[in-house]
Amino acid sequence: MTRLEPTIDPLALLGAGANVMDLSRPMVLGMPQSPNHPEFRLSMPRRHGDVVRADGGSAANDLLISGTHVGTHIDALGHVSHCGSLFGGVDAEAAQIGGRLSSHGVEEIPPIVGRGVLLDVAALYGTGPLPGGYEITPADLDESLRRTGTVIGPGDSVLIRSGWGQHWDDGESYLGATSGVPGIGEAGARWFAERRPVALGADTIAFECLAPARGHALLPAHRVLLVEHGIYIIETMALEELAAVGATEFALVVAPLHLVGATGSPVRPLAVLAADRG
Amino acid sequence: MTRLEPTIDPLALLGAGANVMDLSRPMVLGMPQSPNHPEFRLSMPRRHGDVVRADGGSAANDLLISGTHVGTHIDALGHVSHCGSLFGGVDAEAAQIGGRLSSHGVEEIPPIVGRGVLLDVAALYGTGPLPGGYEITPADLDESLRRTGTVIGPGDSVLIRSGWGQHWDDGESYLGATSGVPGIGEAGARWFAERRPVALGADTIAFECLAPARGHALLPAHRVLLVEHGIYIIETMALEELAAVGATEFALVVAPLHLVGATGSPVRPLAVLAADRG
Amino acid sequence: MTRLEPTIDPLALLGAGANVMDLSRPMVLGMPQSPNHPEFRLSMPRRHGDVVRADGGSAANDLLISGTHVGTHIDALGHVSHCGSLFGGVDAEAAQIGGRLSSHGVEEIPPIVGRGVLLDVAALYGTGPLPGGYEITPADLDESLRRTGTVIGPGDSVLIRSGWGQHWDDGESYLGATSGVPGIGEAGARWFAERRPVALGADTIAFECLAPARGHALLPAHRVLLVEHGIYIIETMALEELAAVGATEFALVVAPLHLVGATGSPVRPLAVLAADRG
Amino acid sequence: MTRLEPTIDPLALLGAGANVMDLSRPMVLGMPQSPNHPEFRLSMPRRHGDVVRADGGSAANDLLISGTHVGTHIDALGHVSHCGSLFGGVDAEAAQIGGRLSSHGVEEIPPIVGRGVLLDVAALYGTGPLPGGYEITPADLDESLRRTGTVIGPGDSVLIRSGWGQHWDDGESYLGATSGVPGIGEAGARWFAERRPVALGADTIAFECLAPARGHALLPAHRVLLVEHGIYIIETMALEELAAVGATEFALVVAPLHLVGATGSPVRPLAVLAADRG
Fold first, then answer.
1. A104 and A78 in contact (C-beta within 8 Å)?
2. Residue A69, min C-alpha distance to chain C (Å)
3. How confident is the model at residue C218 (pLDDT cuts 50, 70, 90)?
4. pLDDT for the residue A214
5. Computed from CA positions of residues B222, B225, B226, B227, in that sequence, does the dihedral angle turn out positive or negative?
6. What is the ipTM of this complex?
7. What residues contact C22, with CB distance under 8 A and at least 6 apart?
8. How many Cβ atoms from other residues are within 10 Å of residue D16's Cβ?
9. Rounded distance between C-alpha atoms, residue A205 and residue C205, angstroms
10. Measured between CB atoms, which of A38, A50, A97 is closest to D99?
11. Neighbours of chain D (3+ CB pairs under 8 A)
12. I want to staple B81 with a disulfide (CB 3.0 to 4.6 A). Which of A112, A157, B92, C145 is the partner?
């Protein structure tokens, strides 16, 4: 059972109605995904007409193959280790015996139903995306937060818009292997950690700043957030529409699949906005 | 964008806080699943220590293989056809060319954020599950609804508790191949269709009444709901805890994965209850 | 390059022609397979008509998911470890870093093109299968070999017929969870190891004797053969036809898939018999 | 049962020994494969140490996911249709009901144990590969065959070396999306069809000539061979070593996996050469 923060009740924003905004990317063969993870593929083993029941009924079904860090997804704490340890000093080697996590798996993430805040860092610098490889600074975060006119409290989820999602339809640009990808680094991660959010999200595939042509050489923000502070990370989010309507506070719902022992899960994050927004 | 029904605002139930209840079953190798669908399996292609970054960081990841009608899941309208047609008279053969649905795929389901109602049919007859093969009648539904002291309105989601979920930990009993499984039939489906819910859910694997030793010979409720009335079906839900706290009305959130062209999706349905419940 | 034993040339048996006998089981969804291994499943992501080329051509293709110890298959030496070591004292932990074997993977098995010998142990006791749980003794092996009128030399492959393959069409019987399964045990494995064959095969799913209702509690023959002596094991072979024609010596061809780092591979073993046999 | 051609007995080439040459490519994540087919991936769900038996024994196993036209593989006749028909006029739509081929599946290919002939077309033009997009002509085939000093008879298998296999280690070059790929076209296919081989193989991914930057726009050789003449096609073969030893005639063994209803299968083709070759 997850308790909403009583002092910050985004659901009270809802009056006679609400708008629900989908923050996920469509999952389809060939979409941008990290080469570190198994390819997303959906096949249809049974089609309509393959088996027809006596009354004329028939059913089609699917076979899904995918990494769990593919499409819009959330990282469980056990996704990353540092010097052999997971969050809270859990021994990574011991936790993974049997081929699934006995500790810090994605099923331990309480479904998120709480206050969300959008930090539109890209908007500080114009209308387009931040440049590839740009590291979002604590000063950027301060200024973005100031513009929202609100604060970040413990248990909130914060979504960081770099504008990089505008590259989604061009897979190679989105992956940014040569250009790098904008995002926070270690300093930004520590800025957030002080504010004790439950989760952070971004509109990029690896969440954090990737230097040009370096790949995922180092992932310091993952270390700070997942390993040191137990803060979940949501990647590959669709944040353009949320920014376009000027949303800064909303109810955020993220319900990872109930995959026992998994290191992550594809998700369909939803922002619930007051009826007069969106 | 999904608009909540203005006349029935479950979110207004929420005062200074809320309780979030998980209505999904844990997904694990060997859990009960229909033999018609690909086996759920999670593997860990990369474990901690396989690749270690220069700073001592390492990551583990997963490979997920599954049917989309496995674990707690939602049926897209295109899952079932009748005499060659999907909902709205869409030609099933044409819709499935290319091996995924070009119409009525699961990505067309608007994420559900709305009012949920629990009909505890099992409670009419005692504390245990309804018997295998029992067909829930319209009279049962009338009486269950009467006990809630509320009504079902257009756009609501209704969850039908048969108590069969008490068999979850015994896979063979839960599948009910020889015993049959309780649920609604054609008459019950028509009772619901008149009330125009957006979705119906149940605590069984196939949603509807299965006669003993007949398998999935006929699925009339699927036809009535998916093909004739465009009402989504959610299966394999965990409803015992919801019933135990006496919940009858709540906010229901169901966010199917964004699987373009799929016939269904595993989901993690959440009931949001007023702070003094659950 | 594998060199046939010059002193034993089964290919010289071949005169103006040869008969090729398939020693594999058909791979189909639902066939008997060990619950320890991923389910075999073949899906058709693309069907004829999904994409049609300008000239009227179209193609269908498949998606294969399977364990590698499923259907008729061969075990690589790295499949089994004992007290942390693989064959030759290789450290199992080190060999599996990265999620595939860097040593003793199936790609290290030289394709087998050599002399095969059939030991028809079942025929010692009648026409049906040996009983479930029966452990084939060295005396059985001596007598079976005597009946063939030949010897087993270094580099040969020996196929052991228990008759259990007659249960193939009844999956539960074939798996033998309650009945046990006949096969050699530690003593039989040592009997073979002295004769230095390159591979041993059998018509059962786990090759060795399984006591009733014990599952795969212990697998001593795997230890003796794979770990101590570097002898490959072929399981789930179809040997009934070979026995029916009275074949005792033949050329055996087993070409594992070229799966780098795998612990095993499905195979299609072929017996090539002289033209007047079979 | 497949009968070797009595008039051409490659096995008679074998004297006191034989050399076995592997004509397959190693299957590994990231190897060149056609984007039309599911990605090859091998995962290790169970590693040594995950489960340890009472005696200290442990086992590792694999999960294989792959297209069946991936790595070195053979095309079943049912892989390609023309204007709705498979070989022999079989209706493609009817044959694929149920999601696997009821006719012309890969299990209908009799395992190939017969005479193989290598046509080294690349050697006509020098030591490197033929140029991308080069269509091998009937004149090329005539001249290549003349150089072998032998003939092609009914039931033989013929392997066509374009030299393109020298690009194997550079995946993009090997796929040849921009350069095109050398191979036979419709005229070459008809040249072969007259000689009634059982199978043709090549060292390229799609067997036939691909024009630069055209992809698999048209596949006329597939039509002529698979649909019109019932001749199997083997792709992505490793032929460099065979050519290097000057082999022109040999025993060829190709044993497709016993995949019921599949459109193709990965294979490990073997050339068995006389003892003094290779």
1. yes
2. 18
3. confident
4. 76
5. positive
6. 0.93
7. C238, C268, C269, C270, D111, D258
8. 11
9. 44
10. A50
11. A, B, C
12. B92
